[in-house]
Amino acid sequence: MLYIKCPHCGMRPQIEFSYGGDASVKRPELNKEISDQEWDDFVYNRKSLRGKHLELWQHISGCRQWIKIERDTATHEIFKTFKADEEVA
Amino acid sequence: MSQDFRLESVGLINRDKKLSFKFNGKKYFGYEGDTLASALLANGVHLIGRSFKYHRPRGFFGAGVDEPYAIVQLYRNNETEPNIKATEQELFEGLEAKSVNCWPSVNFDIGAINNFLKIFLPAGFYYKTFMWPKSFWYRIYEPFIRKAAGLGVASIKHDKERYEHKYEYCDLLIAGSGPSGLSSAYAAAKNGAKVILAEDKPRFGGSLLTSDVNIGNQSGKDWAEGIIAELKTMPNVVVKNRSQIFGYYDHNMLVMSEKVSDHLPKTKKYHPNKRLWYIRAKEVLISSGSIERPIVFGNNDTPGVMLSSAAKEYLKVYGVLVGKNPLIFTNNDSGYETAIEFQKHGVQPVILDSRKNPESEIIDEAKSLGINIKNSYVVVAAQGYKKVKSADIASISDDKKQLGKIENIKCDCICVSGFWTPSIHLASQSGNKTKFKEEIDAFVPGNSKQQETTLGAANGVFSLEETLQTSFAKGRELSKKITNNDNEVSVPNVVEKKSSEHDKFWCVPLPTGKNYKRFLDFQNDVAVSDIEIALREGYRSIEHVKRYTTLGMATDQGKTSNLNGLQLVSDIENKVVPAVGHTTFRPPYTPISIGAIVGREVGKHSKPTRKSPMHSWHEKNNAVFVDAGVWLRPRYYKRGNENLFEGSKREAKNVRTNVGVCDVTTLGKIDIKGPDAAEFLNRIYTNAWLKLPVGKARYGVMLREDGIVMDDGTTTRISENHYHMTTTTAQAANVLSHLEYYLQLIWPELNVNVVSTTEQWAGAAIAGPKSRDVLQKLFPNLDVSNEGLPFMGYMEGDLFGVKARIFRISFSGELAYEINVESDNGNFMWQKIMEFGEEFKIQPYGTEALSTLRIEMGHVAGSELDGRTIPYDNALEGLVSKKKDFIGKRSLQRAAFIADDRQRIVGVVPLDKKTSIPEGSHLVKDANAPLPNPKLGHISASCWSVEYDNPFSLAIIKDGKNMIGEKLFVMSPLKNKVIPVEIVSSHYVDPKGERVRS
Q: CA-CA 20 to 30 A from B763: which of A2, B148, B178, B640?
């Protein structure tokens, strides 16, 4: 079970969180004309990376904040966690 | 019966407390402190079961967790548990145990015929034999295998024992209380670190309990006792015996099973049977020791053949002789230590040493005691069926390939030592890539993967002095990092006898003309010949060899067999062991009771049960409840002998003709506040929200980004910047997360806050033509006329001193209102509604009537919004704005979603107006078409229309818009039904929606 540092609450066990997918995906702006391909890439197409991955989690049984976690998908090592609005360095 | 094999005054058992127990129905005696194994051995019982495949007699092989044979069915306090190791089960008064895997009895076992059929039961036997004819599998083969296999019988009774889970955090978690565990724990504790020291056995001390060593001028055992006694007094230390750390998971999370009550005849009041600890440790010290490795020879599974360390443990801890005429077969000095203990207690052993001319202090001591030692000698085969009677022995050439003349010598046990295998399971589970250590021909942990360090014998270090030095140093170093204290603890003097090297000999060649079974895996009956077959048939990867032969796949996970198996594969393949590699170690290290894993999450504790504030009223009024997610909701209110169908029909009819009241507390409710709330709703919902006036509600549909409907519900503008959103019961939590996602990540510029208020409000829906009359009585001072409170209107009122919210919204399709009050007043509200509704013939209605009412009206719910439908499919396209953007809008342009024959909701009526249509049935054009009959769609919800008094269903079918009026067939192969039906509009009742506006 992962041990995750919530940037708001501190170290918490994984059971308090729920996974929210790839954090690097950017939602196209509202009312913007975009191609089918762009939209498909946003909705469906994801890389299944081995290694460093920026992902979204929600501290669902804690502060309910969505956070970003930089995690190694192979080793589960967590390098850094970010608040929702924090710049990912 | 006297204990013929028990020594006087030797061992750590309590001779003052005699315990009686039964094995296979026969009564025996033992002492407090015995295990079932030691007590049976004290009584001379060596035959404990039958082997898994060949049903060969099985005795005891080890003295602890490594035991592959001695598995019993245990009976304790009217409960039974399978798969119990006799070597681990502590004796208690009245214990009963039975052999497994034998029928009719362990002495006369019919399955033993497999032993003579073994030529037909080679490796891969199941895969080869049971493949044809195919139809035989489930009728003949599988029942046969099921009957023959297994290690006991699971109880089918409800388990009355209680199991607990515990979460713990510590600085240092130490697995194993042998010399390295004790030393590191002591040093870390002295630095003020929070330490948990876990020992799987009842007694602390590990190898110090049995080895002849001196630490700090006292015996190893006394030193261990002193350390433990001191650790127990320290507030920063938790020491736990009978506690097995069995799994090493991510981020230094380990799981430990503590046997709290298994050693007692009965679990004490308020005590659990077992306690599962989830431990998050900053540092983990693995001091799990090592397990002695067997040497492979003919019939090496005969009862009486056991590990030499086990024989020593039975003698020194339990005062039990495993034989009175022991033969020691060794390739290293450990066998000598066992021999010396025998000799000291008046039993003359014979040592066969595969080495030619070994010299060491230990060997010198054995010689000086006059023990008969034969160098360059091996056991070729054990003789005897249910017990060792003698051994065929021979000299062996220096290259270990040629046997000399075979002699037979009498013996009643053969104690084997093929050197030691470090217990690297936990280190390996942590992700540590193990490495092969040539000197000990075994794997040891490599570089640390997590915060773990392996010490002592588990790390391949067999010198006590070195173990103590490194363990004290590590304990001090790691704790210093955490606590910043650095208290020096002096390492005590160690006196231990120096040993010489082992000779890596592990398998005795077969003598010419003999075909003895030489077992590698004792629990799964895997012999040398099986591995040879697997390799001959082309299996190369060790993972494949394992699965084909089942080597190391038994409940002992190959603790005694893995390395010898690897040796054999590497010998045949002409590789070195590290090139073959070992199979993956996975948790649990040893079988863990399912009860411990489940913990308290049984029965009512499996999931929370949520009840509305009106629950007690429903109970008193004969409500029959149904699970709706985690909520309990009334399904119908039973009157007399009514069944569900009759009761729900009555309730639904009463709504259509008079008025009904339904508890709608379970609906999800979300409070939305902020200056940008309207803009936010406009982006969340498919329809327009910017112009909704204060005091008005609106029905909305929200999509996922992929265009699929996520949820629906009404949202009401309470004041300028304050909205009250409702969601379906099932989606409440997901919708909240969804809203938070967009507010926190996508549009953080929107000034909006959301919070769940589901539990803050109790809700009652009053529905039916007379609902306005009831409402007027409840709020005599309010104008609730059609003009004063129009459809989709909202007002606040005073319900006899209680603040209430009144919404004119309808799920039933009738004139209807929903009243919300703070939860504490829910029951008060409900009683007032019933009181004032009485003159209008009000009746409560449950979820079944609720469904009927919404189905007749063609209102969609969870069975239509099933995660596969878009707004059009549910006839909700009118709510999809063309002007503004919203979540998921772009997806609605996908080719499949705008296809001309896109699926759509329709109504379905059976032609005979009588036959009920099963939900989930398929719709087809031709009932007699050849299979697979093309499916047009499925029935999503069915009811008995109370308006027309005939069955009515909703379906989602292909090209639904052009299907109205078509005659189709509903097919339900599950219920064996074919029903001719007509497709009608999904709005079966009041298609113009006049009633809700009346």
A: B640
Nearest to A27 among B737, B746, B748 (CB): B746
Give the pLDDT mean for B719-742. 96
Query: Shortest CB distance from B745 goes to which of A18, A31, A66?
Result: A66
Determine the average pLDDT of the residues in B719-733. Answer: 96
**Residue B245 near residue B522, CB atoms below 8 Å:** no
Query: Which amino acid is present at A39?
Result: W
Question: Once rounded to an integer, what is the mean pLDDT over residues B776-791?
Answer: 97
By CB neighbour count within 10 A (0-12 exposed, 13-18 middle, 19+ buried), where does A48 fall? exposed
Q: Residue A43: its chain B contacts at CB < 8 A?
A: 705-706, 891
Q: What is the pLDDT of residues B143-154, one digit of tens each?
A: 666 655 567 888
User: Which tokens hold the place of B29?
Assistant: 């005696």
**Any idea which fold B1-158 has?**
Ubiquitin-like (UB roll) (3.10.20)
> Order of strands across the sheet with B305-307?
B305-307, B413-417, B326-330, B350-353, B372-375
Distance CA(B829)–CA(B821), nearest Å, equals: 7
The pLDDT of residue B580 is 83
Omega into B104 within 30° of 0, i.e. cis?
Answer: yes
Band (pLDDT 50/70/90 cuts) for residue B138 is low
- In the three-class reduction of DSSP (H, G, I as helix; E, B as strand; rest coil), residue B769 is classed as coil
**Class of the CATH domain delimited by B512-573:** mainly alpha
Within 8 A of B740 by CB-CB distance, chain A residues are 58, 64, 66
Amino acid type, B337? E
**Does the domain formed by B899-997 have CATH 2.40.30.110?**
yes
Measured between CB atoms, does B891 come within 8 Å of chain A? Answer: yes
Give the Cα separation of B429 and B460 in Å (integer). 17
| B311-321 confidence digits (pLDDT tens) | 999 999 999 99
Q: Which fold has domain B294-418?
A: FAD/NAD(P)-binding domain (3.50.50)
Give B745's contacts in chain A (Cβ within 8 Å). Answer: 56, 66, 84
- The span from the CA of B301 to the CA of B518, in Å, is 8
Q: In CATH terms, are B163-290+422-495 and B294-418 the same topology?
A: yes
Q: What is the pLDDT of residue B1?
A: 46
Question: Is B745's CB within 8 Å of A56's CB?
Answer: yes
Token pair recorded at residue B370: 């006059």
Count of all residues that appear for chain A in the document:
89
Q: Give per-residue pLDDT as tens, B325-354.
A: 999 999 999 999 999 999 999 999 999 999
**Neighbour tally for B502: CB within 10 Å:** 24
Q: Does B608 touch chain A (CB under 8 A)?
A: no
Question: How many CB pairs below 8 Å do chains A and B form together?
Answer: 55
Homologous superfamily of B163-290+422-495? FAD/NAD(P)-binding domain (3.50.50.60)
Contact B740 A1 (CB under 8 A): no
Query: Under CATH, what is the fold of the domain A3-25+38-83?
Result: Folate-binding fold (3.30.2270)
Domain B667-757+870-894: give its CATH code.
3.30.70.1400
How confident is the prediction for chain B on average, in pLDDT?
A: 94
B394 burial type by CB count under 10 A (0-12 exposed, 13-18 middle, 19+ buried): buried
Q: Which of residues 28-57 of A touch B (CB under 8 A)?
A: 28, 30-31, 34, 36, 39, 42-44, 56
Return the exposure string of B674-701: e unless at least 16 CB atoms fall within 10 Å of the residue's CB, then b: bebbbbbbbbbbbbbbeebeeebbbbbb
CA distance B280 to chain A (A): 9
pLDDT tens readout for residues B486-536: 999 999 999 999 999 999 999 999 999 999 999 999 988 899 999 999 999
The CA distance from B485 to B892, in Å, is: 65
